Fold these 3 entries.
Entry 1:
Amino acid sequence: MEQTFIMIKPDGVQRGLIGEIISRFEKKGFYLKGLKLITVDRPFAEKHYADLSAKPFFSGLVDYIISGPVVAMVWEGKNVVTTGRKIIGATNPAQSEPGTIRGDFAIDIGRNVIHGSDSVESATKEIALWFPEGPVAWQNSLHSWIYE
Ligand code: RTP
């Protein structure tokens, strides 16, 4: 089944939003298949955001991501990449709808609380980068109550 990489950024951790964010993904019915609290160094953050290296905000973005621990997660479920992005909301919180994570908890694009893979291809790359040991293999016992 499809998997995505979700990261609670340092501002989300510092503001005590870990439980709230995990709860939203859990209550939707997605399965948590990887979870770690980790502080990454500059080369690692630059690798994660390599596609944005030419952007003017790149160095500020890297400074932000390495400024404290982040929560790295793998979530699994049908259409989890696209639905995960909807749960997160638009990149700029000024445009994120209320009811989304960024719409409810963020104001500034440079402090937007959470990251989610933007495609299945990015998810595969990001999961390999953050979880070289691989996700955890387990089967949720409620599976048939969530899927037809
Ligand atoms: P993310 O990767 O964090 O889920 O965000 P995204 O796909 O929605 O947005 P992307 O364009 O990939 O940008 C990655 C992160 O860079 C920061 N950003 N700052 N100052 C700016 O104009 C600006 N634009 C983007 C945001 O933290 C964004 O989430």
Entry 2:
Amino acid sequence: WAKAEGRGRWAVFDPERSARDIARSALVAGLPAALDRGEFVVHYQPIVSLLDGQMLAVEALVRWQHPELGLIGPARFIGLAEETGIIVRLGEWVLRQACRDAEAWRREFPGTRLVVSVNLAARQADDAGIVDTVADALVTTGLPADLLQLELTESAVMGSAGEPLRSLHRLAALGVRLAIDDFGTGYSNLAYLRRLPIHCLKLAGPFVEGIRGDGPEVTVDHRDERIVDALVRLAHALELWVTAEAVETPVQAERLRALRCDTGQGRFFGAPGPAGEIVARLRDSGAAA
Ligand code: C2E
Ligand code: MG
Ligand code: MG
Ligand code: MG
């Protein structure tokens, strides 16, 4: 038994829960050494045009190739990496790796203009050195700035002081694209949004999930569909691109196209995979020309 924050309330000690917490802490304690040992890998997921299916961008998604536990997804360590601050170092490694890979694709397939989209944690975006880090990653790898997109959540955009981040304007001035990730699930301040140097909104998965076509008949949550409709109109009124996340079925892809969504990402268009899968896809599409 453990006493919960005064007021005479008691919480039941849950052995399973604490075992999980211990496992999580052990995992996160190993992060810095794992980074030094090179145990992280970046996978990439296609972001395709809903008009013609062409792959226009890829999102960089980090995984941990753990020597005993196998491939671990970011859901299990990103949150803790943010809390401990190690995300700043891990995120910088992902950024550099993603720029390196994107530059290699650009050299191998000069006809393409594949954008690489990298997630920026709030902690990283808030870090004073972020602009220099991004500028240095571009210079060292040779990747043109307009082929890099940075994804920030609504709360990251607002910064820790509750003010829109000044560094966003400096990042935009470098020529990189900025996207709001999981748009519609966070704290959206539309008055700020219209003043921010943003290029793209990524519509959060739950809205797309409301458009279902996995059974024998199509069931549509009309409220979700109307929200998507409204958000796409809002984005286009602000001259922003819209990417729908978590597109899993052809019905969703078709509905999103009808709603004038620009691009889509999700299992329907391709799961995240190693860089080699992106190369194979570029080769198949005859992108070498
Ligand atoms: P996110 O940025 O919103 O990334 C999209 C997530 O949706 C990815 O999960 C992706 O694998 C997953 N996804 C792909 N296709 C589908 C689909 O068809 N349906 C559904 N329901 N989901 C799909 P993942 O790779 O596990 O990443 C989870 C989150 O971890 C990311 O969400 C992002 O917030 C964070 N993350 C990943 N890599 C990094 C990184 O390098 N830095 C930071 N700061 N965060 C990262
Ligand atoms: Mg995952
Ligand atoms: Mg993202
Ligand atoms: Mg997202």
Entry 3:
Amino acid sequence: LAKANGKNGFRFYSSDLNATLERKMTIENELKKAIEKEELFLVYQPKVDLQSREVIGAEALLRWRHPKLGFVSPGEFIPVAEETGQIIRIGEWVMREASRQNKAWQEKGFAPMCISINVSVLQFQREDFLETVDRALTDAKLDPGSLELEITESVMQNVWESTQILKRIRKMGVRVSLDDFGTGYSSLHVLQNLPIDTLKIDKSFIDALTDINQHAMVKTIVELGLNLNLDIVAEGIEEEYQVQVLTSHKCRIGQGYLFSRPVAPEEFEQLLVPVQETVQVT
Ligand code: C2E
Ligand code: MG
Ligand code: MG
Ligand code: MG
């Protein structure tokens, strides 16, 4: 119908659709220059021990501040970056930057901790992915055990291939976490044989704890994870009662606004305890 109106049918589409396409094209174009222009940066959200409330690690989350567009959320630009393949370069930058920062904190005297980054399935499936990880760690002089890769259940579309890649990642000593667990379609059979270290329970299950009938779901996921010898992390904790329910079901690690939002490195550092408090001799 639109096209029947002339050679440039495009402008006859609803203005909503037009605006959406335009926004997408703008993001795609501006994203190309984002790394060079140093518009990308990482924020860190603590992972805490639910009993002691101590910070035991962090998730690095990508942020983009554009001079004209302002802050663009990862929920908006990551899908564009995935569609255009730009996620490969951006994802590598994230890995390198998180590794550099982690090493810098260790050198400042903070206890070594594991920092996780999110990895797109497109990065994961590339032939050179392991080399990229290895190079990032070597250049940062970071211990592989200090890096964890968060992948989603979408990598399970190709179970056999993914399992081989995961085995090689873990052989390097790098940790693997299954993010947003429970929202995808991985079968229990697949999960049982998956070489991973951590299960991250999706926020939707944590939100659902307001309903007592939903507690069984979290209980089941935690039991499953513990039986498979995995670390269990609950994401998106906002309320104290959620901590109570989670700890009663033996979930020991959590992440969420209740403890801290994702923050800039300088602010994150304030949450860390130095290994040795230097004793002043007078
Ligand atoms: P995710 O990996 O599941 O990250 C958790 C998201 O939940 C983050 O949103 C975080 O800020 C948010 N969050 C944490 N605690 C709470 C809470 O208590 N309440 C609420 N309402 N939200 C909470 P963010 O930073 O906007 O990231 C969204 C998604 O974008 C991430 O979901 C991840 O899938 C993707 N993403 C972020 N950084 C990267 C990256 O470097 N690479 C890739 N490939 N994806 C990334
Ligand atoms: Mg994540
Ligand atoms: Mg998540
Ligand atoms: Mg999520």
